[in-house]
Specification:
This protein has five helices and no strands. The chain is mostly helical and about 90 residues long.
């Protein structure tokens, strides 16, 4: 997870600096923390949970109309994620 986390910290989290006050870094870090806390009680891939949480609002870069769809499209388009996840995992995410 260290390489994935380094990538997300350097390339994904900074995107939140350009969003409204409710969707800044503190927001994404809270979502990541809460998601991983929940994942600790389930049989899930923690790396997938981490990535999903980190990418969940990046679609706001294209506005507030359907940001979840934009976030999904951006996650799937991020070729770097293929270092850590299979196509099947990416589709699930």
């Amino acid at each position: 997870m260290q390489e994935l986390q380094r990538y997300v910290e350097e390339h994904i989290i900074p995107l939140y600096d350009h969003f409204d006050k409710a969707h800044q870094r503190d927001h994404v870090y809270m979502v990541i923390r809460q998601s991983l806390d929940l994942a600790a009680h389930m049989e899930v891939d923690r790396d997938m949970v981490y990535a999903i949480a980190a990418y969940h609002d990046i679609g706001l870069c294209e506005g507030r109309e359907l940001p979840h769809e934009v976030s999904a499209r951006m996650l799937l388009a991020d070729t770097e994620l293929r270092k850590w996840f299979s196509e099947s995992q990416l589709q699930t995410m």
